[in-house]
Design goal:
The chain is of the alpha/beta class. The protein has 14 helices and 22 strands. It has a seven-stranded mixed β-sheet with strand order 6-5-4-3-2-1-22. Strands 7-8-9-10-11-20-21 form a seven-stranded mixed β-sheet, covered by helices on one side. The longest helix has 31 residues, at 86-116. The chain binds zinc ion (2 copies). One zinc ion (ZN) binds at residues 15, 63, 65-66, 191, 443.
Length: 476
């Protein structure tokens, strides 16, 4: 009985851990590795095992760094159940199809270059056919309902408070040798959210863990003090008013799934309280529009405030308010380029690595009346990170250079991840009533992991390990 760490090991993305139990192989997550293009391409294509050798998959949540390589797994021969909550499955439906489209478009660009160099073209990592076929393998199980994967392996999803459908996964594994022994409990944290997250229910604690696979994205950092929900709302209010007064545009690069809905929800609260100027707000991302519909269909994930908003708001829709427009069509998106009216544009991708947000940046980044508000994590080397850090005066967008005259800021309180303090608390509560033998820290850079490992040990929690890619944690 063991776990092998194949992704998000000493790095944040590409979550993928393999449980070996009684001859069966169960994969926890199968995420895309995101990073420098060449390395990412190779890593995502070359799975460390044959898809056909995997018996089942358990998916913690639909974020692409957790679900995005499932179609590659299918492509390499995997045929078996993929267990997820229904909200995760519904989000994954749109996200995997969208990801397939991105894979196909990305490869066209690469192949154009290769053709010039007379090199053989690459195949896309996967296309919409593989994504659709992967979706047929999903089996949905709701939170709090135990289910059996194989004889001797049972599982349960718990709220993770990180995104719609996100789970902390409890796995109980019968002993391989002693039939009457107490099962070994492995808790896979998934991505750990925060109790202040808008829309979503708070994270739940799973007790009695013997082994823990724990994310530590922010293991070395605390979110700014003013990271409460109300502060994020106040900041949005202020920056929107300034944009309106300047007759400028506010561009919010945001992930289509999760962050976009949180921002819309906060804007809705402001609008309900008549605290917004009569500015137009556009959500310009087809994926975001689809994801918003999924959010509307999963009240089982809502916290009380969201449920009350559905019940008591006039329009019964906390993801809509007057002045808000969801855009699918390209022409409508393009029309925003020529519009002189002040407006708010929420668009993807969140890290400005592609998508419609690049057009909006290109058209507005040189104007001093433009504001750019980042609303989430920006990975190193991305355009989003460069802009957020202000490390370059001129940036390249679609091969052309632009002077950065826009005012750039960062929305506090917009992280979907627990910070160091929350993580420590999570570890304490999760280990409190058990006899934890090991905590494996994943989903973090090495420096963050090392700081958090020390902190755990100082607090007499653990022992904690920081597995590298391919390392194993033997369980008894
Ligand atoms: Zn996530
Ligand atoms: Zn993640």
């Amino acid at each position: 009985m063991k776990v092998q760490f194949w992704g998000a090991a000493q790095t944040v993305t590409g979550s993928m851990h393999l449980i070996h139990h009684n001859g069966k192989r169960i994969l926890l997550d199968c995420g895309l590795y995101q990073g420098r293009r060449k390395e990412a391409f190779k890593r995502n294509r070359e799975l460390p095992f044959d898809g056909s050798s995997i018996d089942a998959v358990v998916l913690s949540h639909a974020h692409i760094d957790h679900s995005g390589n499932l179609p590659s797994l299918y492509r390499s021969g995997f045929r078996g159940p993929i267990y997820a909550t229904s909200a995760s499955r519904d989000l994954a439906a749109f996200m995997l199809m969208d990801s397939a489209k991105i894979q196909v478009n990305d490869i066209k660009y690469v192949n154009k270059k290769r053709k010039r160099k007379k090199q053989k073209p690459f195949e896309p990592l996967y296309g919409s056919e593989e994504a659709a076929a992967t979706l047929r393998e999903f089996r949905t199980i709701e939170y709090g309902h135990p289910f059996t994967i194989f004889e001797g392996v049972s599982c349960q999803f718990h709220f993770a408070g990180h995104m719609l459908g996100a789970s902390t996964v409890e796995i109980n594994l019968d002993s391989e040798t002693e039939p009457n022994a107490k099962p070994t409990r492995l808790v896979f944290s998934g991505d750990i959210g925060r109790s202040e997250m808008p829309i979503l229910r708070d994270p739940q604690i799973v007790e009695g863990a013997d082994y823990i696979i724990m994310e530590a994205t922010y293991g070395n950092r605390e979110h700014a003090k003013n990271s409460k929900d109300g502060d994020a709302r106040a900041m949005l209010k202020k920056i929107i008013q300034e944009t309106w007064d300047d007759r400028g545009k506010l561009i919010i690069p945001a992930f289509s799934v999760g962050r976009t809905q949180e921002i819309v929800y906060r804007l809705n609260q402001l609008a309900e309280g008549n605290q917004l100027p009569p500015i137009k707000v556009f959500v310009d991302s087809p994926l975001a529009v689809n994801a918003t519909d999924v959010f509307r269909g999963h009240p089982e994930c809502y916290d009380d405030a969201m449920v009350n908003a559905v019940l008591y708001e006039d329009d019964g829709d906390p993801l809509h308010f007057e002045g808000l427009r969801y855009i699918r069509k390209v022409e409508e998106s393009k029309a925003l380029n020529t519009s002189k009216e002040p407006c708010v544009i929420i668009s993807a991708s969140g890290m400005c690595e592609g998508g419609r947000v690049l057009h909006h940046l290109k058209n507005n980044i040189e104007k001093p009346t433009t504001r750019i508000l980042f609303a989430g994590y920006q990975a190193p080397h991305t355009l989003g990170r460069i802009l957020m850090d202000g490390s370059l005066d001129r940036v390249k967008i679609y091969g052309e250079e632009y002077q950065v005259n826009a005012q750039v800021s960062h929305l506090q309180g917009s992280s979907g991840h627990a910070d160091q303090k929350n993580l420590l608390e999570w570890a304490r509560e999760t280990t409190e009533k058990g006899d934890v033998k090991k905590i494996a820290l994943v989903h973090c850079e090495l420096d963050s992991a090392t700081v958090f490992q020390d902190l755990l040990h100082k607090n007499k929690l653990g022992p904690a390990i920081i597995p590298a890619k391919g390392d194993e944690m033997v369980m008894s």
